[in-house]
DNA sequence: CCTGCATATTCCTTGACAAGTATATACTTA
DNA sequence: TAAGTATATACTTGTCAAGGAATATGCAGG
């Protein structure tokens, strides 16, 4: 049971997570959109699922995969201890995004179900 | 030159970064505090420096290492695209538990960790 | 300069892991 | 039931990176 950062270290897994950030997708959709071989996709999804990054539901022969929040919260928690090093100095953009995220709950969209 | 997530995937490197989050330290201090062999420390510091995570200044025979902010900002920027998943974490969890309660009134805390 | 200390680097071995190929399982429809 | 589709798993192989031991470099004081 590897830690969250070891999981995310793999570029293809980051690509899959990035795709799923938009909406849920089947294995075949991931395969086509990211130009990866099907076993590769399945194996990475297996790792992601074991690590809690994704969950799936069965839709006929397909499996629909979507994100789960906890591992991202865990990564963010780790980053917290370094936040004072950059949030104040370098990046006004990210602070901006942080605030928008906290102060804009009215922007609820993408109700997937 | 690997990406930031590959750098941070290594547990000893995360430990070093965590220690440097407090204050700057020499190689020997890192070695003693984290119980790592000296070449191991030096090699990891080399990787961290090449990736821009740390910088060093010379103090007599010692090198003092401290953090640099940019890579952390980069990681945070990547996390941004998932932020809505965990910032609404409580909501998501509640919805999830609601659905689970329909089938099993058993309260699970962490799934498969 | 020589000695000692702090750090860096080199070489080597070993383990992990990702990709490819082939095959297995599961579900759907004719 | 057979055939087709979607996904998962087994097995093998090549690559790469971490750790250990030994050694090299750089700096300070006598």
Structural features, described:
The first copy, chain A, is elongated, with a radius of gyration of 16 Å. In chain A, strands 1-3-2 form a 3-stranded antiparallel sheet. Chain A starts with a helix and ends in a 10-residue tail after the last helix. Mean pLDDT of chain A is 83; it is low at 94-113. The first copy, chain A, has helices spanning 4-8, 11-22, 27-34, 38-50, 70-80, 83-86, 92-103, and strands spanning 25-26, 54-59, 62-67. By secondary structure, chain A is α+β, with helices and mostly antiparallel strands. The A-B interface holds A 1, 3, 5-6, 8-9, 11, 14, 17-18, 21, 50, 52, 67-70, 72-73, 75-76, 78-79, 81-83, 85-86, 89-91, 93-94, 97, 101-102 and B 3, 5-6, 8-9, 11, 14, 17-18, 21, 67-70, 72-73, 75-89, 92-93, 110-113. Chain A binds a DNA duplex (30 and 30 nucleotides) through residues 10, 12, 26-28, 37-46, 58, 60-63.
Q: Quick one: how many beta strands of chain A?
A: 3
Largest sheet of chain A: 3 strands, antiparallel
Shape of chain A: elongated
- Oligomeric state as shown: homodimer
Q: How much beta of chain A, percentage-wise?
A: 5-15%
Describe the structure using short key phrases.
homodimer; 113 residues; alpha+beta; 3-stranded antiparallel sheet; 3 strands; disordered C terminus; DNA-binding
List the helices and strands and how they pair.
Two copies of one chain form a homodimer.
Chain A: H1 4-8, H2 11-22, E1 25-26, H3 27-34, H4 38-50, E2 54-59, E3 62-67, H5 70-80, H6 83-86, H7 92-103
Antiparallel strand pairs in A: 1-3, 2-3
The structure holds a DNA duplex (30 and 30 nucleotides).
């Amino acid at each position: 049971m590897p830690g969250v950062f070891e999981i995310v270290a793999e570029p293809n897994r980051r690509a899959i997570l990035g795709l799923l950030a938009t909406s849920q997708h089947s294995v075949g959709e991931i395969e086509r959109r990211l130009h990866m071989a099907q076993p590769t996709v399945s194996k990475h999804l297996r790792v992601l699922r074991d690590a809690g990054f994704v969950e799936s539901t069965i839709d006929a022969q397909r499996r629909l995969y979507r994100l789960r929040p906890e591992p991202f919260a865990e990564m963010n928690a780790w980053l917290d201890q370094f936040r004072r090093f950059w949030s104040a100095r370098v990046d006004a953009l990210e602070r901006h995004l942080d605030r928008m995220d906290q102060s804009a709950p009215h922007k609820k969209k993408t109700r997937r179900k």
